[in-house]
Specification:
By secondary structure, the chain is α+β, with helices and mostly antiparallel strands. It has 4 helices and 5 strands, in the order E-H-H-H-H-E-E-E-E.
Length: 159
């Protein structure tokens, strides 16, 4: 199935431009060893994230990125390519965040996003609620992370 394209650029994208069932693909972003170690030393100091020698002896057989770092890389792609630069009102959170495969230095990540629901708010008609199933893939096409995102977006036309 060929990925969808948006009718409007990200600088002019509003709630109405996100169509239920549409699938989008964006990427890529490279995973760099220095960033894996730096992020993990600060936020997730486990040896398989911070110490290449210890990681080599771990069940992973080498250094892997923290899942939280992977989520941050995914978010960079999500914000750069998918989420409106003019209509985003934030998010109440994500559901069902899963790390399915290790992410390693040298990997190149991309995202596949499926609009699972897009409904105008009944209580605030100037905005809509966007539900997106997010898949993060490595350069081999393996899904390494999934999550369900919820975002609030301004509507182009207020009804």
């Amino acid at each position: 199935m060929k990925p969808a394209t948006f009718a409007k650029p990200i600088e002019d994208r509003y709630f109405e431009d996100y169509i239920s069932g549409a699938v989008y693909e964006f990427g890529s972003i490279d995973v760099q060893e220095e960033e894996v170690i730096s992020f993990s030393r600060r936020f997730d100091p486990q040896p398989f994230h911070t110490d290449p020698a210890a990681a080599a002896e771990s069940i992973y057989g080498g250094l892997i990125a923290s899942g939280w770092h992977t989520a941050g890389l995914m978010m960079r792609l999500f914000a750069d390519h998918y989420l409106s630069h003019v209509a985003s009102l934030g998010s109440p959170g994500v559901d069902e965040l899963r790390w399915l495969e290790p992410v390693r230095p040298g990997d190149s990540l991309s995202i596949r996003l499926t609009v699972t629901d897009a409904k105008r708010s009944r209580s605030k008609p100037d905005r809509g609620i966007l539900h997106t199933f997010c898949e993060t893939l490595n350069q081999r096409g393996q899904v390494v992370m999934t999550m369900k995102a919820v975002n609030f977006l301004l509507c182009r036309e207020v009804k």
